[in-house]
Amino acid sequence: MSVHAFNPAQKTRAGLTVVPDHLDERTVDADVFRSVFRRHAAGVVVITADAGHGPAGFTATSLVSVSSLPPLVSFSIATTASAWPAIQSTQSVVINFLDARQRDLAGRFATSGIDRFAEPTRWSRLRTGEPVLDDAPSYLRALVEHRFAVGSNHIVVARLAVHAERREHDPLLYHDGQYVTTA
Question: pTM score > 0.85 for this model?
Answer without folding.
Answer: no
